[in-house]
Each structure stands twice: as C-alpha cells, then as structure tokens.
Amino acid sequence: xxxxxxxxxxxxxxxxxxxxxxxxxxxxxxxxxxxxxxxxxxxxxxxxxxxxxxxxxxxxxxxxxxxxxxxxxxxxxxxxxxxxxxxxxxxxxxxxxxxxxxxxxxxxxxxxxxxxxxxxxxxxxxxxxxxxxxxxxxxxxxxxxxxxxxxxxxxxxxxxxxxxxxxxxxxxxxxxxxxxxxxxxxxxxxxxxxxxxxxxxxxxxxxxxxxxxxxxxxxxxxxxxxxxxxxxxxxxxxxxxxxxxxxxxxxxxxxxxxxxxxxxxxxxxxxxxxxxxxxxxxxxxxxxxxxxxxxxxxxxxxxxxxxxxxxxxxxxxxxxxxxxxxxxxxxxxxxxxxxxxxxxxxxxxxxxxxxxxxxxxxxxxxxxxxxxxxxxxxxxxxxxxxxxxxxxxxxxxxxxxxxxxxxxxxxxxxxxxxxxxxx
Length: 423
Description:
By secondary structure, the chain is α/β, with parallel strands linked by helices.
C-alpha cells in the first residue's frame, strides 16, 4: 500500500467509482420486462454460460442441501440469524403506529405497514455469499413481509451452491430462483411468468446490479445502489498493526475494486502496518484479489493529528469505518457519515459482516452521507393519517389557513374545498 500525506489526496479519492455504461443495463431490463422468462434464459446463458430453462430451484434440491449441511456451519448460521433477528426487532420498536392531537379536534397519525412481497438478491459468483441471504431475509421477516423469495446466480452446472440453499431452508424460504445480475433485478421489479413481481428489492451485488436497481427504482423499492466495498481505519501508534493489517486484507479480498484505507498520525505505525500486510498476504489464499485491490486502491494516509481524520472520513463517508487505538471511544462520537462504525480493538468489521447482528449490506461510494444500511425500514411503509372532528376549534384554524394559502397559490378549487369545512 502506498503511504501518502493527507494534503496530497486528490479529489478523486473522495468520489465514488465511475459507473459503467448503462445502455446495456437498460437493454437487459427492457428485454426482461418485455419477454419475461425467455429473456432470463437468454441473458443467463450469455453471462453465466449455462442454460436454465426453469429458473426456480426444485424443493427437493433445497431439502437435500439442508440435510447435507455441516453441523458446525449450521450452528454458526443459527447464531448469526438469531443475532440479526434480535437487532432487527430492536429497530422495529422505533417504527410504531401512533395518533396525536396536534390541534383541538385535529388528529395526525402514522401507520407502519410492511410491503406485501420482497425479493432478496444474493451474490453467488466468486463466492457463495449466504451471509447476504441472512442479512436480507431476516429483516424482511421481522418487518412482517408476507412473501419473500431469493434470486441468486446459477453455477456453471446450472445449480445453486448448497450452502445458499441450506441457509434459505433454515429461514423457511423455499422460493429460490437461479438468476443473477441485471436480469434478476429486472425480474424482481417487473415479474415474469416464473418470478413474481416484488414491491421491495434488497441485497448487495456488483456495479451492474447497482445500475439495474437504479434503472428500476420507482417501479419497485430498492435498498440502495452500492458499489465496491470499502473500509477506512483510523488508528494511532497504540493500535495493533497486525490486527489493522488483517482487517485491511479482509476488505481487500472482496474484489479487485475494493478500497482499503488506513489513516494514522504515526509514520512508524504506517510502516509497521505495511510490513504486516506483506507478511500476512503471503499466507492468504485470496492474495491475487487482495493484492490487486491493495495495489490499485489501497492507501495509508498520514495526518498531522488524529483529529484531522474526522473531516476526512466524513467527506469520504466510507461503508465501514473502524477506529483502533487508545482514542477510539473518545473520537467515536465525532464521526457522522459512515455505513457502520466499529469501535476499538475487538470490534472487527468481519464480525459485522457475519454474526454480531448488525447488517452488512451498507452504502458505499460516499452515499452514506444520505443512505442508511439495510434494515427493517427497507421493508416498511410509513403512512400518515388525518382525522378531524367536525366543528372543532382546530378545524376552524387549519381550514382557514389552508384557504388563505390555496388562494395565494391561485388554486381556487383547493380554497373552495377548505371553505366548505368552515362554519
């Protein structure tokens, strides 16, 4: 990883990765919308190299995968799912119905209602990311979504990795479709003869999946449009260079475009971390990918004082923000923009990825300035209600205000409708 001074960072450091040309994405989405399963089959053959005449995975395949799941892995999945569920239930407590009297006789309210159907996208190309299935399905279940199904890319043999099937079975999901990429997002947004139309689409994917979400937004709800994975670690000389290096590598191995960054006020610590990276990557099975992302996107940024990392991190708004060293807890409240925050030596980002309970589907590319990570809220609608008692003082007050405002805007019909409510 290159070591650079903070004042030499170019503006591109704070910008999202460039988007690929969206014309192909638009073509695929339009084709799926127009021809349904026929388009799914054609685009799957073109990009996944396999012919899948029937997208839905047979239930016997799902049951067989569940029966063959390693016991230790099954236990780990259950632990993770239980923690994800507990955290989602805590989030749900803040999403409640209410009605309050805002003026005498005027009652404003909120109803929280789950969507009817959710489609969960689970990446399955380079790695079978069954953890993303847990992160998507469990919050949808806690939200009360009535129907949940999964789309995931097929293997070269035309099936779905058994561990993904087993994870779905554990959560009671039996509708799994062997389709990935742009065509999967389009199928979820518009429906086909086989894949039902979803009201909400959630789950991580590559940049083409993100572009597809952007393309269908408005016809279906989406969680976010995420890009390459990121981590920004802020650490001083008291942090463990071996742990920091391990966390950088854990992020770097995601893909060639991953963005691992360390910000420190200690040149000696920067060198120690770089030495650890060299030693650890030599033993890493995923070193070809991790090495490429470290070389292309990895940075160690030197600042004069650790406080300088706060505005830098807020401007970057990283997907994962990790604070290491003796000042981790005292600095934590000062950061505002991030997908998830990991505070202290033991709060490894990898724990958030899998088993702690917080969700790992997070905004990237500085979009954490305005997007939140995946949660129960992505599967809920917040509806407002108004109930007004006839001839109440509050009615007189708000109807008169509405009439005056409508007349000022030149909307005579609005003014007349308000006037008819006034005695």
